[in-house]
Amino acid sequence: MNQIDSIPRAKTQILLPPPFLRWFANKGWQPRAHQLELLSRVQGGESMLLIAPTGAGKTLAGFLPSLVSLTERGKIPPGSAFTGIHTLYISPLKALAVDIERNLMKPVGDMGLPVRIENRTGDTPAAKRQRQKLNPPDILLTTPEQVALLLANGEAERFFKDLKYVVLDELHSLVTSKRGHLLSLGLARLRQLAPTMQAIGLSATVADPMDLQRWLAAQREGEDNHAGLITVTGGARPEISIMRTDERVPWAGHSAAYAIGDIYKAIGETRTTLLFVNTRSQAERVFQELWTINDDNLPIALHHGSLDVGQRRKVEAAMSENKLRAVVATSTLDLGIDWGDVDMVIHVGAPKGASRLAQRIGRANHRMDEPSRAILVPANRFEVMECQAALDANYIGAQDTPPVGKGALDVLAQHVLGMACAAPFDPLSLYTEITSAAPYAYLSWETFERIVDFVATGGYALRAYERYAKIRKTPEGFWRVSNPLIAQQYRLNVGTIIESPMLNVRMVKHNARGSLGRGGMALGKVEEYFIEMLSPGDTFLFSGKVLRFEGIRESECLVSQGYKLDPKVPSYNGGKFPLSTYLAQQVRKMLADPSRHATLPEQVRDWLSLQKDLSMLPKEDELLIETFPRGSRHYMVIYAFEGRLAHQTLGMLLTRRLDRAGLKPLGFVATDYSLAIWALEDLGEAFTSGRPRLADLFDEDMLGDDLEAWLNESFLLKRTFRNCAVIAGLIDQRHPGKEKSGRQVTVSADLIYDVLRSHEPDHILLKATRNDASTGLLEIERLGDMLSRIKGHITHRPLDRISPLAVPVMLEIGKEAVNGDAQDFLLAEAADELFADVTATASP
Amino acid sequence: MHRIAHAISALPDNPALSARIVVNGVIGICDPLGGLYLPDLDILVVSDLHLEKGSAFARRGMMLPPYDTLATLRILDAVISRHNPKTVISLGDNFHDRVGSALMPEQFRSMIETMARGREWVWINGNHDPDGATALPGASMDELTHSGLIFRHEPALNATAGEIAGHLHPSATVRRREKYMRRACFATDGRRLIMPAFGVTTGGLDLRHQAMRGLFDHQTLVAHMLGRDRIYSVRFANLLG
Hints:
The complex is a heterodimer of chains A (844) and B (241). Chain A has 844 residues and is α/β, with parallel strands linked by helices. Chain A has 34 helices and 25 strands. Among the domains of chain A are: 9-231, Rossmann fold; 239-396, P-loop containing nucleotide triphosphate hydrolases (Rossmann fold), CATH 3.40.50; 409-497 and 718-771, no CATH class; 502-561, no CATH class. In chain A, the strands form 5 sheets. In chain A, strands 3-4-2-5-6-1-7 form a 7-stranded parallel β-sheet, sandwiched between helices. Chain A has a 6-stranded parallel β-sheet with strand order 8-13-12-9-11-10, with helices on both faces. Chain B has 241 residues and is α/β, with parallel strands linked by helices. Chain B has one domain. In chain B, the strands form 2 sheets. In chain B, strands 8, 9, 10, 11, 12, 13, 14, 15 and 16 form a 9-stranded mixed β-sheet that branches. In chain B, strands 1-2-3-4-5-6-7 form a 7-stranded mixed β-sheet, with helices on one face. At the A-B interface, helix 20, helix 29, helix 33 and helix 34 of A face helix 1, strand 1, helix 2, helix 3 and strand 11 of B.
């Protein structure tokens, strides 16, 4: 399994210079087979992808070609001509770049290699950045945003002309996002500046390695260009179990509060535990509940992306010094930062994807040859099945990482402006360069031209802004920036990570006169929209404390110690993953196959067998629809198992259709597993008599006109538009001279969206928004696959009351958010009730 | 449906549910499209049109859609058609910047001329456009006093009763079943009225914001919120902030 097998001595010596051989010998180590294979194939001229589990010596493998090449080159004598950087290392996290510098300096120092290594992140002081441009290090460790900035600079050509290797760490996590799209375009530019450059990708296991292999190589029509692949399998098999409990597993919800006692016990029995949850609010809640029962005062800490950086660093330091027994964390720790010996991972809530679970479990025990230990804690009964399915998948090594996808157009617009900032560009050669990046190989010349037009003047059919153009065509046909301010504006707004407006949370005390004092401790940041919902005196959970909201002062949210025990919990929007297609299929299989129910806990088994008696269990490819009356309403529950996002889209579309059929639908609610719709008319009766026929109701053509009509009014699209508009540079997050304003976006994207949609619905940015929404938020493709799969396999079960399987989704009713048109309905309701007496007051 | 679509599709045949208010003894009708009609004086008041905001941003390198002026003028046209007033008062920040009115394309200029035909038109100067409107029908002035009402852009701290102002873009938030709805509003305590911003790309400032402090008697303050096709009137005590 493990490829730490012996290597013929002769081969090792050929590949590795003496200092390396001595270093390995002194450590009593052998270079691993994959490290040497990577080195030899890179030396042979290939770009490479290395897929290996954590602890396999991936980082050293990635840098070995650089270190060997630099050792052979030797130190550059003072007074030589300018030499650009030799190796560029790109990681998704600033912290990882810093961490790698530390880890790499050690062997380099031990071996006395003539190699200069430096990092460059958003935190690097301006003086150091300037010096790096004049006197570049051999190896530069940095992030995708910094690469974009370096490339948009007039000195880029000089800086990168000697580039030999680009090492891309955690590639699997980068490529599926817009950051990955931006980076792929940067890589295409680097290939132009340094044609012999080779890319080395380091990745955890993925579903389709070829996606990544192509990503690493220049694409050309009619050619099959891709990097070579080395896969390190094995590592010891993880020991994963599902938390067994004597408590009652709830029907619905995500808190897993029932299991807190069991979790605490497990922490007590282990030296160091990493506790993963899916959302920040879940992290806050679990953390608080653990401390409520922490009679032994175990050192348990909290770590998530909203907390103050200083606090996070403290937790990380304490963890690496083994001072903590447990850390409650969100995905901020998914990536490969090394932080000490973790003995066990507890995963609260279902993992939502088999690959995600595997990567998180890999965090326990960074040594490849020892098994990782993990416990899954399902938060409700459906999650019990999901955990079991994920557990089975982990054993057979299933992978369900998302595909790389098509490069986004807003990112392209940003890149085009960046390239103009670097130097005037010829549109045809830039187009050729861009389509050599795998995510943009699909891009048509027409779309490219529209993007260039968008960058120049906004790309409006009403050509109103020619005189204000940001880039202009020279007589020779090159595009250049109109003035230096444009480049400054670009630099301020580079990147694809759009944060919703955040306020600092600061602790204050009341002074003797009862007014608020100044300058307490900063606790972190919280979304502005959340704070806007609070009135002074409201309490909420943040940073592991119950806080009392006092007010807003400038861009800070002031809080004091709260003493209530039942706070409102921050409703953070980050970190809700939908159930992966693969895992959904596994859950359907499990449900359909009673022989597999034996592995499930007794209460879940009983639940399923009750369902079988009172209704039925759907077969794997069957779509079960139950209808039943309840109160004055009629319900239908659809067991589609396609994840919350796809269900929401389906719910929107079905209610439109039910409305047209005169069935008076009132609302719907979606979970990862099912969708419930309620109506005034008898849905069961309607379907039984074929008015409408279910086959028609679920026909794929709902993804045509109905989808169009709904999309146009959708709140989701507005949110997506905001991100696209900022990334594409239509709306600045920060404007020159106003960098520190705190409230980022300077105009309301919602209002801009309304104006643009009513006057130019075909605008390129609206197209980009649609593309984004249909893959991300709406999961239209996934819904389409489902509709075609269930054709002819729809089973309707009319019931006279709620079924056991329907209980979880029915419990979610009333918790869902309301947006768009429904808001007006609620406003009317509020208005009628709250202020019937207003007219009398206003007219004396 | 948002305000632009509604103004284009539903008017003027579809009567909207407006709210009747009284400011310093003068009756006013709050129209959900964002205008205030004073029937006894036959005056229509709008505020903070922020015309040519898109092009103002374009001059600084942000290519916002050049359709905001057209969209705002269409709604203005709709609300003028509905009330057919003798006088129109635009309460300042009529243009997003000083050069906006001078650089406005001919198409929009003639739209305003058509709307103003047969009416009196008053441009109150705002902080964005202190120099008045260029080459447009009507008179520009800093403020106007008429029948116990004072029309000005920025509310004055010690104003006498009867001030009608804009500038602050008031909005209000209501909580209902744990959901929050925020809308632009007319804000009045019977002594003073602050108008909602009329321009389609203008945002709002919550009534509880410190900039609103000291302007109203909270006991009698009511927010008349702009809904899709009606006004929702909410007492200050029932608002969230």
